[in-house]
């Protein structure tokens, strides 16, 4: 395994900036997910690490050693693509053995290593089948076996589960995580699937417009993002306006709903500053009662209900004087839910779960 360092990668294609100062570090044995919308540059970043693309400026280092001048086959990276890229005319065993044969390994070693790789991905006994005889999940496992059989220093996965249906994808997430931990290979997973990024990785890097916007552990990035656009992209979120008030040096926020909440004691925002506040739907509190201003509640009407299995999304239309017409959503357990469209509820925003962002960071 090897550490990977990306140092200020810049790349323009056709006059358009694709990478705009990408810096990122993967520790030895770490699994990092690179998450972002289509066209943000995440696949180009992966291809630059692999050596298929060369940056205009900046560098790529493995274990502190520059690899920019090395071709892909000299970097010892394993690659898994969304479309599997298996050779249709080759059996499973020959597909997995391909990289070893290119390295001119002995036939006895190849046979042994192919068997070991197929055992790892739970495909023992499939050696003589062809890709057309396999399911999507099985083809993905063959692609993984082909990538790990060469004992790569770095494993690069480009939307590895994107072609699978939900049930297969969930199963393969478990297998991928098990395999990565068992082998201890430094792994970069490129994905636009937020759940996949959060569940598979030790850390998540969010990328927008050719830049890394945030990097952190999955739970911290989801619960306490430093930027509003990261919060909006990584899961669902409610956003609303508030204004800073100060009295005798003590600060508070007056929300658009007419409620007030304490301002972070470390905040130096001046009175009158407008901010944007975000809260996740699962943290919004509802009760079927008249709103109590002392409790920081405001009135809302249930506009719609969306059943999601174990939970239900409650879409709210705010009734308060200042926030009238605004919409919010709350996630509640579906079991025992007794709300219907048109019900009036009291809504509360627990201050511990409200994140404050400057207006320039708003979404």
Brief sketch in words of this structure:
By secondary structure, the chain is an alpha+beta fold.
Output the strand order for the largest sheet.
6-7-8-3-9-10
Mean pLDDT: 89
Task: State the low-pLDDT regions, or none.
Answer: none
Order of helices and strands: EEEHEEEHHHEHEHEEHHEEEEEEEEEE
Radius of gyration: 25 Å
CATH homologous superfamily grouping of the largest domain: P-loop containing nucleotide triphosphate hydrolases
What this model shows, in words?
The chain has 363 residues and is an alpha+beta fold. It has two domains: 4-233, Rossmann fold (3-Layer(aba) Sandwich); 238-361, OB fold (Dihydrolipoamide Acetyltransferase, E2P). 23% of the residues lie in helices and 34% in strands. The chain is built from eight helices and 20 strands. It has helices at residues 42-50, 92-102, 107-120, 136-148, 166-183, 194-200, 218-223, 228-233; strands spanning 4-13, 16-26, 31-35, 57-62, 65-66, 77-80, 154-158, 186-191, 203-208, 211-216, 238-247, 250-255, 260-262, 274-279, 285-287, 297-307, 311-318, 327-333, 344-348, 355-358. The strands form four sheets. It has a six-stranded mixed sheet with strand order 6-7-8-3-9-10, with helices on both faces. Strand 11 and strand 12 (250-255) form a beta hairpin. Helix 2 (92-102) packs across helix 3, helix 2 (92-102) packs parallel to helix 4 (136-148) and helix 3 (107-120) crosses helix 4 (136-148). The longest helix has 18 residues, at 166-183. The two termini are 39 Å apart. The model has no long low-confidence stretch (mean pLDDT 89).
């Amino acid at each position: 395994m090897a550490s990977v360092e990306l140092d200020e990668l810049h790349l323009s294609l056709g006059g358009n900036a694709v990478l705009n100062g990408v810096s990122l570090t993967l520790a030895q044995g770490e699994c990092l997910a690179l998450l972002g919308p289509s066209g943000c540059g995440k696949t180009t970043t992966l291809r630059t690490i692999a050596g298929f693309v060369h940056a205009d400026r900046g560098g790529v280092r493995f274990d502190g050693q520059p690899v920019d001048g090395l071709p892909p086959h000299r970097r010892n990276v394993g690659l898994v693509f969304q479309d599997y890229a298996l050779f249709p005319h080759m059996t499973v065993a020959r597909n997995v053995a391909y990289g070893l044969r290119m390295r001119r390994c002995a036939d006895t070693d190849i046979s042994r290593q192919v068997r070991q790789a197929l055992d790892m991905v739970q495909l023992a006994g499939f050696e003589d089948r062809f890709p057309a005889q396999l399911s999507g999940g099985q083809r993905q496992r063959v692609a993984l076996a082909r990538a790990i059989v060469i004992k790569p220093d770095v494993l690069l996965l480009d939307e590895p589960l994107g072609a699978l249906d939900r049930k297969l994808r969930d199963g393969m997430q478990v297998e991928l995580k098990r395999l990565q931990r068992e082998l201890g290979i430094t792994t970069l997973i490129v994905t636009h699937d937020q759940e996949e990024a959060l569940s598979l990785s030790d850390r998540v890097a969010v990328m927008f417009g050719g830049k890394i916007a945030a990097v952190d552990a999955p739970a911290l990035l989801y619960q306490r993002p430093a930027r509003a656009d990261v919060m909006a992209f990584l899961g669902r979120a409610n956003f609303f306006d508030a204004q800073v008030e100060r009295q005798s040096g003590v600060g508070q926020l007056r929300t658009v709903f007419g409620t007030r909440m304490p301002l972070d004691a470390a905040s130096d925002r001046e009175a009158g500053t407008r901010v944007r506040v975000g809260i996740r739907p699962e943290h919004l509190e509802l009760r079927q009662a008249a709103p109590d201003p002392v409790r920081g509640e405001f009135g809302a009407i249930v506009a719609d209900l969306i059943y999601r299995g174990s939970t239900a999304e409650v879409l709210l239309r705010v009734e308060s004087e200042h926030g009238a017409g605004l919409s919010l959503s709350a996630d509640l357990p579906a079991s025992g839910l007794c709300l219907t469209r048109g019900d009036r509820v009291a809504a509360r925003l627990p201050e511990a779960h409200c994140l404050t962002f400057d207006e320039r960071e708003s979404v």
